[in-house]
Amino acid sequence: MDFEIVNGDVATCETECLIVGIEADGQLSPSASALDKAAQGYIADIVGGGDIQGKTAETLLLQKVPGVTARRVLLIGLGKSEERNDRNYRKIVKSAMAAIKGVRAQSAVFALDGLGSKDDDQYRQIRHLIEWAGSELYIYDETKSKKADPISLDKIAILLSEDDSELGEYAVLDGVALVNGISTARELGNLPGNICTPTYLAEQALALGEEHDALEVSILDEDEMEQLGMHSLLSVGHGSDQPSKLIVMHYKGGEEGAKNHVLVGKGITFDTGGISLKGGAGMDEMKFDMCGAASVMGAMTALCEMNLELNVVGIVAAAENMPSGCATKPGDIVTTMSGQTVEILNTDAEGRLVLCDALTYAERFEPETVVDVATLTGACIVALGHHATGLLSNDDALANSLLQAGDQAADKAWRLPLWDEYQEQLDSNFADIANIGGPPAGTVTAACFLSRFTKSYRWAHLDIAGVAWNSKGKDKGATGRCVPLLSQHLMNLAATD
Ligand code: BES
Ligand code: MN
Ligand code: ZN
Predict the structure, then answer these.
(1) Annotated catalytic residue, options 124, 245, 352, 481
(2) Ligand 1 atom nearest residue 278's Cα
(3) What is the mean pLDDT of residues 134-148?
(4) DSSP state for residue 70 in the 8-state scheme
(5) Closest to 284 in 3D by CA, of 274, 294, 270, 295
(6) Tens digits of per-residue pLDDT, 302-324?
């Protein structure tokens, strides 16, 4: 798919589908007015007839409008100006894309006059248009014998004034990098557990390293992790025939000697719960338990494509959590790489067991900041539902930057407390710390567990259990969240570092 910026007169724009906005109560947007003038009142007449009212995301497709070069004109409702927020803007883009795909147009030009979202600047509107239009083109068919019909659309352009074009070009470059990062994460998430194993994730990371000169990838196998004392991480994969992997992706886009920012992803390629076996209903969804890893790999993809001037290390802790005669049992005690011992009271609280060793490993990069991403707790879905990522941090400035990045990227997070009061829930009679803290505040106690391993640096934890995938119907599948938040965070760091 080609995305580009075009200039010129909307009436003579050559495309198979030109998209212009109709505001609430049928008011024509500037581009719709210009078309109407060229068409001698044709559009105002149709809108006046009540065929479209301008409600958010409402569409009306017109063919061969007189005096207009475009083969089709798609009128799209922009809604009331005070209701033009990210959510409605995304609905507008989604509904426009459905209409464009529906008529199998090969090219489309959006002329939305920057009216999509009221509190957006031009850059952000264009970038979101690209991200969201691009996401509508993602199709999963890797494991279907009958491949999806190829989408006929091969060019999407945005019509801008010449003055806005330079900014527009940057927005397109960033938007395309984000689409690729998001699609990478979705594809990894959607692949089944029998294909997307820890070894597969490692191969994909190595392939990404081959593509980009600035990215060095190395893989630690079980023997190497054993040498480092990562017994907690290794305990999770004991019951599995699939070997665990620690994937390290070092992006060196910044100055030599500039500090590293570290991202750590939970890569449980399937979570049965282990000996603390999960119930059968919906267990297939635990193939998505590597979506934290997928987000990190997606953000690394976007980062490489944007050539950000920053040093970033992406670490993925990959393992499969299975029950077997070799599996870790409730009550087992392991020694982590940090030296702290953990009593594993529930083998289904495995994410924190792989992350803690990866977080200790992160110390060797002398990080400026560390952000981990994980589908860590069902409790996060109870607390925040499917809209916000849970954010917990030992550093207010880092937490606030991540919240802000989430708002900018329309990939929202919400902070939960990480107070000392909660730490006591992790007390163990037999080890330094237990891996579960009981029913109250499960997301907080999971983060409390991680906080025991992140004392030496500025750290934040993102719990994406509620947002990483959709469970229902036609939409079932990975969402690519939180690639936008992470990428925005890195972009902001690159701009200020
Ligand atoms: N991967 C799950 C968390 C999860 C559950 C994410 C459902 C999305 C949907 C995690 O490994 C897990 O099983 N957590 C347990 C922790 C508990 C045993 C303390 C949970 O949330 O029940
Ligand atoms: Mn689990
Ligand atoms: Zn899990």
Answers:
(1) 352
(2) 13
(3) 96
(4) S
(5) 270
(6) 999 999 999 999 999 999 999 99
